[in-house]
Hints:
The complex is a heterodimer.
Chain A: E1 2-7, H1 14-23, E2 27-32, E3 43-46, H2 66-76, E4 80-84, H3 86-93, E5 100-102, E6 110-118, E7 133-140, E8 144-146, H4 149-157, E9 161-166, E10 185-189, E11 195-198, H5 214-226
Parallel strand pairs in A: 1-2, 1-3, 3-4, 4-11
Antiparallel strand pairs in A: 5-8, 6-7, 6-9, 9-10, 10-11
Chain B: E1 2-9, H1 16-27, E2 40-45, H2 51-66, E3 72-79
Antiparallel strand pairs in B: 1-2, 1-3
Amino acid sequence: xxxxxxxxxxxxxxxxxxxxxxxxxxxxxxxxxxxxxxxxxxxxxxxxxxxxxxxxxxxxxxxxxxxxxxxxxxxxxxxxxxxxxxxxxxxxxxxxxxxxxxxxxxxxxxxxxxxxxxxxxxxxxxxxxxxxxxxxxxxxxxxxxxxxxxxxxxxxxxxxxxxxxxxxxxxxxxxxxxxxxxxxxxxxxxxxxxxxxxxxxxxxxxxxxxxxxxxxxxxxxxxxxxx
Amino acid sequence: xxxxxxxxxxxxxxxxxxxxxxxxxxxxxxxxxxxxxxxxxxxxxxxxxxxxxxxxxxxxxxxxxxxxxxxxxxxxxxxx
Lengths: 227, 80
């Protein structure tokens, strides 16, 4: 299976993502933001980082870069696109997933492990996953998911909420909400479920001795789903 | 021609920075503040001499890049 990771100026999780995808069997290519065309891919990943120094709004400049026209066309034709952290911010700015990511509620950069509940498994990203709660890592300043009431209704009606911040038993409540996101939303799909944006980093959980294994579970399952 | 645009957060969007600025002002003795909302201000010099056209151009920029209309409003405040 072929994947491509887009590198923007200021991306800093692109190589981690490359390591993770390669480790679990993807043939991965790195693509520069100024390129016009994507290599043939089964999965496109927009990685975490601080593209364009987070100027104006996080992800806003990167969402207008040359390669994004191809990414948008790829997504619109049903291709799988995943945006992690800054990649999620780029996806919302590009209009590929609804809503927006605001500054964290308590104005602090948050860097810690969190648990997320997988709500919707009827999609290529989480289908057949045998765990309901995963432990991932978050590191962000703007992860406070926000959308209008109308958008929220549409998102809920279409089952577009991918993952929620929760405790280790899968309970979601205000106390374990790290950043003030509406409904504890940590990740969201587009209507067709082929585009996933999420704040947590699965690529930081691929080595038991360094961090954890839930990222490994996620990537192995993803590869099997795409095959 | 220079055109200025002001981007502000919509009313129902939480503005934690504005809130902290409000609290700091309060701590400094400025006790008569009801609310602070932080926004952005742009001065754009466009190659256009017709005020209406210049304004329309900046409005298009606001819609497409400068503001995120999910959370922000924009206002073109002056042309000169």
